């Protein structure tokens, strides 16, 4: 049988070559300047623009982009199509496409006052293009919030120990923020104490697992779970499709994300992401080392080989009973492990506002994405060790396998399987939580630019009556620090309660990947306007590939999965079991949303292409200085 170590080796080889060679070329290509003033220094306000130490910012950026998607995507794709196609897309696509995307998004934002990719493209193609891209990004954010909250609920149900551990971890992050920024505590001693506390939270969770309703996962029958709410919980929206405990955790996660997104970055976002980075380093690094040690020394409790229930290649249409085409859906199912448009929002939304030096962009932008690719490889390895024997149980049933397989892998280092599994589940959830509330914060940034708000200013949204016109009142609520999260979380919740896991994840992946294509388009437009002598293939080729893949993928989801398989067959009576009302509503919303995203994207590609052609042909204005905004 094939050993799991070959998955890790393949990723390490291509990632090392990419960082040592390609990232150095890219740094020279965009002319990073260590002495240039970054937006964090120019607009320092203690709220959003905060110059940050490289390790702290790397922790924030790494945690925010890594999230749960590089775990969920490879697990889903590996279970559907087999581990070989999933590995090839991660190992090859990441250094050539995903890391380029992240680096260019961060570098472009640095040269445009830390503004978003929507602002950047608007500088070159006009306000209409800017608004279109910002709306596209905002709609994608809603999907991010929906799917990440859903996955947290699934994992909390399977591992109630992590519900407790996550609560302790968030409390520690708040205390760490106060310790660093209000009491000016020493950095290194504080790091040691609070990181130790985060790892201790795993033990607290094992001793005192909590759930909102009785968990339904088979493994929880042996646990003494503290159930906070009585009754069966069937009144909870989505309980019929997801189970009461899973469905009940989803709004809790969204409320947390809404509150966290409104807090100053120093209070929770920076300290939490910094502490999360140690979980990520320990989870990814520990798993990689454990796979190497366990393979060479045979110290794991089980052989570290790819389980026979997980196929190397399950065919073009995937594992039996799923019926999903490998092309183009593989390339949108694995998003964050290879290339992800959400990263462009992080890079140009929060990271660019905190970068201390331009030259830090190479490690944080390009290197951070490679780290995420390694996490995706670990996720695929964990699935490979545990296997996936019951596709009929739904792809969502494969998600807890990351923790289960990770627990087996960590036994190579002498860690008990039960402890290792809970730790790996905490790794998954902690990054889901960081990505979710970062997404809501980024959604507010998007809306601030859509509605209009000067740089460095914020709006609480609590006093709309002070505005003059009705549109101004609506705009204040839409962009408000405390009111904008409702604009995002309410539609996200309506999408997720249907329980349609596979189509919702694929729709998120399609929107996310199409956003990546638009971010690459933005970078290409910026470079074309900056210097007429610079080549455009580095960003232009990945952009063209992603536009083709994602438009086809979204078209499949809109016309086949939702309009035909769900709505048409339901209303013609062809389905054996008619869909519930919430599933029908979700399918209709997904179809409309998919069509809107396709239309916006193709329109933006057309506008961007026209700008590039005009600039390069000399029929438009002169190329701009890279720092022009």
From TrEMBL:
Topology of the protein relative to the lipid bilayer: Multi-pass membrane protein
Entry's Gene Ontology cellular component terms: plasma membrane
UniProt domain CstA N-terminal: residue ranges: 4-383, 398-551
InterPro entries according to UniProt: CstA, CstA_N
Subcellular location: Cell membrane
Signal sequence interval, chain numbering: none
A Pfam family hit: CstA
Protein's UniProt name: Carbon starvation protein A
Species for this entry: Halonotius aquaticus
């Amino acid at each position: 049988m094939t050993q799991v170590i070959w998955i890790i080796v393949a990723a390490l080889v291509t990632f090392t070559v990419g960082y040592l060679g390609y990232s150095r070329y890219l740094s020279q290509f965009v002319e990073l300047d260590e002495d240039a003033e970054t937006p964090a220094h120019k607009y320092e306000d203690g709220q959003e623009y905060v110059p940050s130490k490289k390790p702290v910012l790397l922790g924030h950026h790494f945690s925010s982009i890594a999230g749960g998607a590089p775990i969920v995507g490879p697990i889903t794709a590996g279970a559907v199509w087999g581990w070989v196609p999933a590995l090839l897309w991660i190992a090859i696509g990441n250094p050539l496409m995903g890391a380029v995307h992240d680096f260019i998004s961060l570098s472009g934002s640095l040269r445009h006052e830390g503004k978003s990719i929507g602002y950047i493209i608007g500088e070159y193609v006009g306000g209409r293009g800017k608004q279109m891209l910002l709306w596209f990004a905002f709609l994608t954010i809603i999907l991010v919030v929906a799917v990440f909250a859903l996955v947290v609920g699934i994992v909390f149900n399977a591992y109630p120990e992590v519900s407790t551990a996550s609560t302790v971890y968030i409390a520690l992050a708040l205390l760490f923020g106060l310790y660093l920024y209000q009491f000016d505590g020493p950095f290194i001693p504080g790091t040691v104490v609070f990181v130790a506390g985060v790892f201790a939270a795993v033990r607290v969770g094992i001793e005192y697992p909590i759930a909102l309703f009785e968990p339904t996962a088979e493994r929880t029958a042996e646990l003494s779970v503290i159930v906070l709410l009585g009754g069966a919980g069937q009144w909870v929206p989505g309980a019929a499709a997801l189970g009461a405990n899973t469905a009940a955790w989803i709004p809790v996660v969204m409320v947390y994300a809404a509150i966290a997104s409104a807090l100053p970055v120093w209070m929770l976002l920076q300290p939490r992401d910094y502490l999360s980075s140690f979980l990520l380093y320990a989870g990814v690094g520990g798993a990689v080392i454990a796979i190497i040690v366990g393979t060479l020394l045979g110290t794991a409790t089980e052989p570290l080989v790819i389980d026979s229930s997980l196929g190397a290649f399950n065919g073009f249409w995937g594992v039996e009973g799923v019926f999903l085409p490998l092309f183009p859906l593989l390339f949108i199912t694995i998003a964050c492990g290879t290339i992800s448009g959400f990263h462009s929002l992080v890079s140009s939304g929060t990271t660019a506002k905190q970068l201390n030096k331009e030259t830090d962009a190479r490690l944080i932008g390009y290197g951070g994405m490679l780290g995420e690719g390694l996490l995706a490889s670990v996720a695929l390895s964990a699935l490979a060790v545990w296997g996936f024997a019951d596709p009929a149980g739904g792809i969502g049933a494969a998600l807890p396998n990351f923790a289960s397989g990770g627990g087996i892998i960590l036994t190579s280092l002498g860690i008990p399987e039960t402890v290792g599994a809970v730790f790996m589940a905490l790794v998954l959830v902690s990054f889901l939580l960081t990505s979710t509330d970062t997404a809501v914060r980024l959604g507010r940034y998007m809306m601030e630019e859509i509605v209009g708000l000067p740089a460095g200013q914020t709006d609480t949204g609590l006093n709309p009556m002070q505005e003059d016109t009705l549109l101004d009142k609506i705009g204040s609520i839409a962009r408000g620090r405390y009111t904008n999260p409702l604009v995002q979380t309410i539609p996200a919740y309506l999408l997720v309660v249907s329980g349609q896991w596979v189509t919702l994840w694929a729709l998120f992946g399609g929107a996310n990947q199409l956003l990546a294509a638009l971010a690459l388009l933005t970078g290409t437009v910026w470079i074309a306007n900056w210097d007429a002598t610079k080549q455009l293939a580095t960003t232009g080729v990945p952009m063209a590939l992603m536009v083709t893949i994602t438009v086809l993928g979204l078209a499949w989801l809109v016309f086949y999965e939702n309009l035909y398989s769900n709505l048409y067959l339901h209303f013609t009576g062809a389905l054996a079991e008619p869909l519930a009302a919430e599933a029908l509503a979700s399918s209709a919303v997904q179809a409309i949303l998919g069509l809107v995203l396709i239309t916006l994207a193709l329109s933006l590609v057309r506008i961007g292409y026209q700008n590039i052609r005009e600039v390069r042909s000399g029929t438009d204005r002169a190329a701009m200085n890279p720092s022009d905004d």
